[in-house]
Amino acid sequence: WLGKSIGAADLPLPVLIGVEIKDAQLVDFDALTQRLQAIAPDISLDSHRLWLDALVGRARIAQFVALGIVLLNGLAAIATVIFATRTGLMVHRAMIEVLHLIGATDGYIARQFAGQALRLGLRGGLIGIVPALLALLLVTNAWGLAGGANAGGVLGLQIELKPLQWAALLMVPLITAAIAVFTARRTVLAMLAKLP
């Protein structure tokens, strides 16, 4: 590319010195740059702060987007449970009136709907957690493979969940079921209060 007449020793290649700092908070990079430039005027100091700040900013945006998606999914689940419970109440209205005539309380009827919501919530949570775990395992392995065994993944990032985070992830089906039970019970009691 440069031709055969030019050797590597004749090229003005910069000398790079890599330094790892244990605690970046203890270093004043501006003062360090001035001190180094007093020794060698052409020297430059790159702390990677610019691209690291941009990377951290994008990661935070991704976290907020993910949180928004989780909240929207939760609201959609609540709306679905409300709609299904109201539909069930309307379909079984005659049976509910008979149950009232023979002495069934609103609490008893609400417990029946809540039990159904519990079964459906657990089933839906378990069905949803399996592909989520598979995707998480695939992503963590893909990051590690892309960066090599010792490179810490792409751009030196490691995706690693702590035991508490794994436990929180595995609690999703129970949380889903709890939301479904609470929503179904409140919906039934509110609608039964309006019935004569």
Quick overview:
This protein has 196 residues and is mainly α.
Q: Which helices and strands, and how do they pair?
A:
Layout (H helix, E strand, L loop, with lengths): L28 H11 L9 H43 L1 H9 L4 H42 L15 H8 L1 H23 L2
Helix pairs in contact: 2-6, 4-6
Keywords:
rod-shaped, 196 residues, 0% strand, mainly alpha
Shape assignment: rod-shaped
**Average pLDDT metric:** 80
**C-alpha termini separation:** 90 Å
Q: Number of helical runs?
A: 6
Given helix and strand content, the structural type is mainly alpha
Please give the share of residues in helix: 55-70%
Q: Using the CA coordinates, give the radius of gyration.
A: 30 Å
**Largest sheet: number of strands, sense, barrel closure:** none
Task: List the uncertain runs.
Answer: 145-156
Number of strands: 0
Name the helix and strand elements from N-terminus to C-terminus, one letter apiece. Answer: HHHHHH
Strand content: under 5%
Structural write-up:
The chain is mainly α and 196 residues long. The protein has helices spanning 29-39, 49-91, 93-101, 106-147, 163-170, 172-194. The chain is built from six helices and no strands. Helix 2 (49-91) crosses helix 6 (172-194). The termini are far apart. Mean pLDDT is 80; it is low at 145-156.
